[in-house]
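Entry 12.
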Amino acid sequence: MKKSIVFIFLFISFFSFSQNGKIYPKSADIISGGLNTYVYEPPTGLTLPENAVINLVYMPFDNQIIPLIKKDVNYEFTVAVPDSIKFLDMTVTDQTMKIIDSNSDKGYIIYLKNKTKEELEKAKLSYISNFGLGNYILKLNVTTEEIISRFDELYTQNPALKEDESYSYYLYFQYQKDNAKFKPAVIEYAEKLIVNGDEKSLSKASDIYQWLKRYDKFIEIEGIALKKYPKGQFAKNKFFREYFNAQSRPEKFITDEMNRYCTEFNDTSSNAKRPFQVELLRTYLKNEDTLNIKRYASLIHNDLFIAKLYNNTAWELSGQDLITLGKDLSFAESLSKQSIEIIKKAMNDSTKKNEIIRLKDLYITYTDTYALILYKLQKYDLAFQYQDEISKMVDIDSGGKERYAGYAEKAKGLEFAKTYIEKQLKAGVDSKIMINQLQEIYKKLNLPLADFEKIKENALNSRSQKTKDQIIKKYGSLGAIDFTLTNLKGKKVKLSDYKGKVVILDFWATWCGPCRASFPKMQELVEKYKNRNVEFFFINVWEKMKPADIKTNVAKFIKENNYSFNVLFDFTDEIAAKYKVEAIPTKIVIDKNGNMLTIECPLEDLSTLIDQNL
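Predicted 3D structure (tokens):
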């Protein structure tokens, strides 16, 4: 009887979110922490492709891609999650992650902890506190207003739930909706947490004061915590904050800091050493120290993570596109080959059968890297062979198609490449590289350039319209959002004053590795377009310090690297929010009329786009 009750709870907890489709456990006998099978009933009239999968997320964060198996008129999938997991959030997609059924953009939710009313309430609080995970990973559209409403419903049913730690999320969402109205309640709650005095409460309070931009209070709370818990999480966070803020981290520095951490926190476990060992491995990969690469790879005990590091290094050495010269290509080839071998081994591991879709995706990514390296080594036939293999496995992205076309010209000839490129452009693939390649092919084959120009015009018009539609969908119009920010020299800069110029907004932070990696090339562009009708604004965001400390830190960073950047400070992150920046670096290009040309401009395309609009 008890099992039946659990099953009914689970049904109830799901159906409150369901539209036409349904997802529910196949059996009432749920194995906690073990493999369980679930049934998916598609909405009426929806036909699924053969490669349909469940895209699933849960907290603490994990994302799994699970194959759907047809069973009569419905589908089934089997998944194991840790015993501590309270909810599953899911959509149905194809293997390219194109959404097939997202339950009206709200996702399918199953609450795993539901044997009692209290458990179910906790599970619901866990979901609504972390709803952004589904929005981001699963591309859902659960609104803040909906989440606030669900919080209010739970609090009405049980006011004691406001004592749960998730209450800080509720206040955060309310504060984002109406700063002035809810700020007093937020501060009152934070002060209550400080009075509680345990490290978990102090941590919550410090988080609150960080998103309030009250760094004086954050420092005060940190001081209290460090004094009260000298070996606690605050002390560890402070250690790593200072460690990662070091401008240079050579091998000896990393080793010394690892030993200091282990001594200070009396922890010599493999988990304690892992962050340092990973960074040492990255250092040895950079230095091509094969002996130490092998040594530290064996210490980390995570083959898939090692494969990722190998591929990332190989990709950087490859030049990352068809044109840029690669470096140390023999070493890159060896690393890339090893990454593929690791993935192949995992794909043949029967214990990883539920990860096969993710592993297949990794195999495609790493093979794409390997093919580019082979191309740079002038092994054209082999490069095309590998790229052709993965193009048959999945609809590769535009970059992969550009590489396919480049390899095809060398391995299969001009006519083959011409046919392929024209097909891709006609299908709406956005690629200036393929347009340029096609133009050269027309010249080599002595074909009428007028025919090429028609293809080019159609492709560019399609690209332009697609970009405009994307911008309008996100912002409501093409017009750049005006702002006034202060730069590093203390001068007020108003965006609308720069109409008549091409403007590049580069959102960044000092702690952002990809931002820093892009800056040498950005400096080249700043120099290239100096004294021309172009302005670069490097908008500093998402720093967790007082404004004065942010300014000092940024000034030091710019000076040490000899950058001549016009840095603007978005201390409150208000402009980043208005531009809906979700990740950094984000580069937005604005034309002379003050309209956004693109909101996702890759670094390698920036110069071409600027030239086109000058």
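Annotation: Residues 1-19 have pLDDT under 50 and may be disordered. DSSP finds 24 helices and 16 strands in the chain.
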